[in-house]
Structure formats: C-alpha cells, structure tokens
Amino acid sequence: MRPSVLDPLFAPVSSLPGVGPKSVQLYDRLLGETDRPARVLDLLFHLPQAGIDRSRSGSILDAPIGEVATFAARVVEHRPAPPGKSRAPYRVLLEDETGDVTLVFFKADAGRMRSILPVGEIRYVSGKIELWEGRRQMVHPDRVMDRRAFETMPAIEAVYGMTEGLSSRMLARTAEAALSRLPKVPEWQDAAWFAKNGFPPFADALKALHNPDDVAAITPENVARRRLAYDEMLASQLALALVRAQRKRAAGRVNSGDGKLVNALTEVLPFRLTGSQIEAGAQIRADMAKPERMLRLLQGDVGSGKTAVAMLAMASAAEAGRQSALMAPTEILARQHAMRLDNLARAIGLRLALLTGREKGQERARVLAGLADGSIHIVVGTHALFQEHVAFHDLGLAVVDEQHRFGVHQRLAIGAKGEGVDILVMTATPIPRTLALTWFGDMDVSVLREKPAGRQPITTRAVSLDRYDEVVGAVGRAIAVGAQVYWVCPLVQESETLDVAAATDRFNDLREAFRERVGLLHGQMPGREKDAAMARFVAGETAVLVSTTVIEVGVDVPNASVMVIEHAERFGLAQLHQLRGRIGRGSAASTCILLYKGPLGPVAEARIAIMRETEDGFRIAEEDLKLRGEGEVLGTRQSGMPGFRIARPEIDGDLLGAARDDARLVVERDPELISTRGEALRLLLYIFERDAAVRLLRAG
Ligand code: ADP
Ligand code: MG
Q1: What spacing in Å lies between the alpha carbon of 345 and ligand 1's midpoint?
Q2: CATH code at 405?
Q3: Measuring from atom 17 of ligand 1, which residue has the nearest CA?
C-alpha cells in the first residue's frame, strides 16, 4: 500500500482550488490517461518548457522592438472602432516621459477596455512592441496590470506545454496550488552523490522549476531538472534491480524437451528460417533449458520474422509439457497471430486458442476451462490474458509482442500467472542502447539482423498533397495489376474522433474512384467490423485499405505493396518506419508514398529525407533520437523516453550508468529496502510509479 504521506500527490487535479469542472476536462486531456484523471503529481511533473522575462524593461523608448518588454505608462486616450466599422481595431494610446505607444485590440469590448485601461491612470503593460508606419504599437498586449498586480506577478513567467483552452497562466496558478501540497519527504539520494552534484532537495527542485527566478533556470541542463531526471532514472533502475533480484530468488524450471516439436515446426513452416532466426531460437531454447528464469528481449526490425521465433519458443515449452501465452498489444494483432499460428499449432498436434476482451459467454468459458485443465497449449490474446480470473494449468512461457506498450507492471502480472515463467519480450522498435538499458536493465538480448530472403527494397517517395489526384491515379494503376494498398490517414491533434473523421472522409473520396474495392479500418469501429474489414483485405476482396494508425503494429499482409501515408509530416520517424514496415513483405517491389502538406518545417523535412534514404530501423531510431527534443512540439509529453516524464536520453544519458550502479548497490546492501535510505527509496518508487517492484519485497 502506498504510504499515506504521498496521498496528496495522487489526488486528482480537481481537488486543487480554482480547478472547476470545465478545466478538469482540459487537465485530464493534457495530463491524464484513458483510465485515470490528471493528478497533482502529473501537474508537478509537467515542467515549464520556456520562460518569459516580464521584469520591467525601462521606458517606452527603451523597449526593444519585437521582444517582450514590460513598462509603465499613463493611459491618454481611447479610440474605439468608428461606428459601422466593427472590424477596425480598438486603439488605446499610452505615454510616458520618453514617448508613446498605441495598444491595438481586435474585437474588443469597449466597456472592458475602459475598465482595464482607465484614462489618466498608470498601467503596467507587457508584450511585444512593433513599429507600424514609424510609430510604436502593441497588438494584444500579453498583460495589462495595475500596480498591485504588477508587484505580485513573478518576474519570470513559466511557459507550459498546453492543450487548447488552457493557458500557461492557468497552469502556473494550478501548479502553484499543487506545490503547496508537496509532502515533506526524506532525502533518498545517496548523501555523497547528492553533495557532489549540488542537487537541491526534491521539493525545492520542483519549486525552482515551476517558479524560475531567471530564464536560464528553464534550460534542460538546470540542476533542479537534472535532479528530478536522476530521481526518475534511479526509480526505474531500482525497480529493474529488484525484479532481477527476485527473479534470481525464484528459480525457474526447465522448459524444453526432446526437440521433437521444434523440429516438427521447422518442417511445417512455409519458409526456411533465416540464420538470425535460427540463432535467436537457439539462444532462447538454451535459456529455457536452464533452471533459471528467462528474461530475454528479441529485437528485430519490422518484417524480420519475430513471430516464427516466438512459435519455436512456444513449441519448446510444449515439449516440457507446459503452456505458453502470447500477448499482443492490439486486438487486430492478436487475431492475426492466432489465425496464422493456429495452422502451425495444429500441424504439430498442439491446441491454440484466442482470448481477448471480446471473447464472451460460452466461447470464453471454453477457453478458460481449456487453460485451467491444460488442454490448450498456446493462448494468444491481448492484455486480457493477464486479468485475475484467467488461470493456467501450468504456464511456462509468456511472450510479449511489441513490448514498447507494456511496462514493468504487466511484466510482473505475467510472472504471477505461473511458477518460474520464462519471459520473452519482442520489440519491432529498434531500441538504441541507452534506451534498452533504461527499459530493460540487464535483460538478455537477441537480435534478428537479417531479413528473410527475397525481400525487395521499398521505394519511398515524398509527394505534395497538391498532387493528390496523381497519387489516386497511381493507386488505380497499382490495383489494376493486382497490388494492394494501405492508405494511412493522419493523426489529427490528439483526438481519436477527429482521426476517424479524416479517415472516413478519405474513405468516401476513394470510394468514388474505386467503388467497393476500398475498405475502412479504424479504432472506433466495433470489433466485429474491424475483423471483417481486415479479413476482406487479407482475402484480397478489398484492394485499398483506408485506416488510421491502428495498422501500425504488426499487421502482416504480404500482398500489400503500396502504402500512402497522408500528412506524413505529422508522424514521428519511428512511427513512419513502423507503418512502412507493413509493406515490402512479399516478393513484389513496394512503394511508399509520403503525402505531405507543405511548407515543411525543418524537422519534418529531415524526417522525410531520412525515410527516403534508408530502411534500416537502427539508423532510423538513432536519427529519431537526434531529431526529438528539437522537434517535440508544445503540448506533447516532453520526455523522449516512453515511460519517462522528465529524463531525456539526449541530455540525461550520462546519468544512466550512475543510476544503474546506485540501484545495484542498494539492492545488494539493503535488498528489502529497510534502512533509512531504503525507506526513503520506497517513496521514490511510489512517486515515479515504479511501485510494482515494492510488492516484490513482501512477496520475496
Ligand atoms: P515481425 O518481425 O515484423 O513481427 P513477422 O513475424 O510478422 O515480422 O514476419 C513478417 C513476414 O515474413 C511474415 O509474412 C512471415 O510469414 C514472413 N517470414 C518470417 N520468417 C521468414 C523467413 N525465414 N523466410 C521468409 N518469410 C518469412
Ligand atoms: Mg510482429
């Protein structure tokens, strides 16, 4: 149980003063997750991205043109829009002893103007001055204040990533309220390390970051932010170290047998395994044969054939008389895996079942019974597999496909489903070394470097959206000769509903050109319709599949050889690579068209150039890391590491090694976290939500 001293941090943002029902929704959208509201903690970790200096810059004449200036001046005259010209701006003239400036407001309310800028009074104004026909003017000042407001305003204004409807000022006010809820916590950092780095205490660091006293305090190199980044990495490394220690304590079991099923599987596979697949298969089998638990990452670029390797491992487990579970991140992918693997399983005499949130009633009861009595050898599903009421007869191996969507929590939940469960995690996202270390600690890694033979390179072209008609023409010619096409529609802001609308519109457009040969697939369709749309595409009944990014992960239709990615400029590099990985899987030459809307910003341009240049996922991942940080826009999570809110690989990578060593030492000396520092570190684990690891302490 979470120590109650931390409760204020986990209270919803709605518990803070000044947060009403309307803004709660905005905070939830900005900082919440689908299954939980935005909390005080989320707000505190949502750090300002920049600062604006609002300290007084002198007289009107001193104010630098084009930069934010703050000065005091007397209100001289109001010049409302002339009658009948309501679109003309409302102007207010101010002056001081050095000169004058005209404030310009569009759609202003005269009454309000007179109340905030009373003639004859001194007002403090902050904003950007520009020259207009030789005269100073300021369009929509950022601030108009009386003396009292000016004196209580912080000199440096924090600028936050936002969502529409929330302003930085609202965020700053709410953050202030959140700061006042910070509990007193003991220091969890090692004393010598703390002193050496000149770290501020945890609460002080948060305060300093939300109330910067100069603009430089907001740079990523700032020691307060670095402290929090280190805290976060330490929490993560400590959680991993605890999991590892527990894994060593809980002995595994031998999970392979005479090799008969593995050999039989190799025979029935419709292709010859690549050298990489054979090697990875052997590494996994060797791990499984050891009486220790396996925790191995299988890393292989899109299309490298990870599924077959997983199937080999599952056959190994079956040889030892144990069950396997394969967990996929999406419903579509789970179904696809089940369909593919079922044939193979049957061919070698194993029984496979599918279990997702959608199997209901009798069907579900049958699967649950089969898992409980051991008559089902392999189960494929979504995270529904690891819900509490699913019980296995004897689970020996859990395979987690596309790991980046799962965290330590899920991993622990899997381990709890059996005795000494071996875990194989597969990821298509090539993970640069620093990241791999952060996520998995010392997890063993197998890599599929080679792609199956006979793959043709993908030609990638960038085409402006102005040439939409030509692209439709090209798609028409491709399907006339039997090709199949994915047409991926863009992310529209953060809203799934808007994505769906965009995809539906495009579907309707393309229907006009290609009639019933066009299908539609998106996340909001009922499950059965999704299956049907996918099945029609797999069967070749539809030739063009218009979809949102739901097809990003894992979908495998080898005959599809053309992909159009609409508004490619809105996608991240990793995502473009994942999407493009859906084609180039068959023997036909493939083409990927990145349909963009210009003018492109420098980051989008660089992404598209890299996509055209290479198909190498490792290279792309590295370039991606470089481009992030620069390219991350306001409003999105600041952290470049999934699962991390503060630490940023390009800036904090240097702290990672220290965090790992620190964590190891802690676990060595104080494995139950009962020393004074150990107790404090438990709080750290809760604060950074790595507390699944705390439960191990008791279980262990
Ligand atoms: P990923 O690693 O992206 O999950 P998949 O396991 O979906 O890749 O495999 C991609 C495609 O390659 C599938 O159609 C699969 O049947 C095929 N495949 C896998 N291994 C081989 C191989 N050794 N030779 C030829 N095709 C293969
Ligand atoms: Mg896959």
Answers
A1: 17
A2: 3.40.50.300
A3: 305
CATH of the domain at 107: 2.40.50.140
* 417 and 514, same domain (yes or no): no
61 and 86 together in one domain: yes
The span from the CA of 377 to the CA of 317, in Å, is: 9
584 touches ligand 1 (CB under 6 Å): no
Q: Mean pLDDT in each 10-residue stretch from start to end of the chain (700 residues)?
A: 92 93 90 84 92 88 90 95 84 94 92 95 95 91 93 87 82 94 96 95 95 82 94 89 72 80 96 95 93 84 91 96 91 88 97 91 94 97 83 93 61 75 82 54 78 87 95 96 92 58 88 94 83 90 90 78 93 86 87 92 89 87 65 31 73 86 92 93 92 60
Question: How many H-runs (helices) and E-runs (strands) does the chain carry?
Answer: 25, 22
Residues 63, 20 share a domain:
no
Cα–Cα distance for residue pair 588/559, rounded to 1 Å: 8
- Ligand 1, closest atom to CA 340? 16
Residues 340 and 396 in one domain: yes
Angstrom distance (rounded) from CA 50 to CA 386: 42
Domain encompassing residue 139: 55-153
250/240 Cα distance (integer angstroms):
15
Nearest to 431 by CA among 577, 551, 332, 563: 577
Q: Indicate whether residue 275 lines ligand 1 (CB < 6 A).
A: no
Nearest CA to ligand 1 atom 12: 305
Give the residue whose CA is nearest to atom 16 of ligand 1: 305
* Residue that finishes a domain, picked among 585, 614, 643: 614
Q: How many domains does the chain have?
A: 4
Ligand 1 near 300 CB (within 6 A): yes
Give a yes or no: residue 226 inside a domain: no
239 phi, psi to nearest 5 deg: -60, -45
Q: Is the same domain home to 419 and 313? A: yes
Same domain? 165 vs 299: no
Mutate which of 276, 297, 304 for ligand 1? The one with the most ligand atoms within 8 Å of its CB, which is 304
C-beta 200 within 6 A of ligand 1:
no
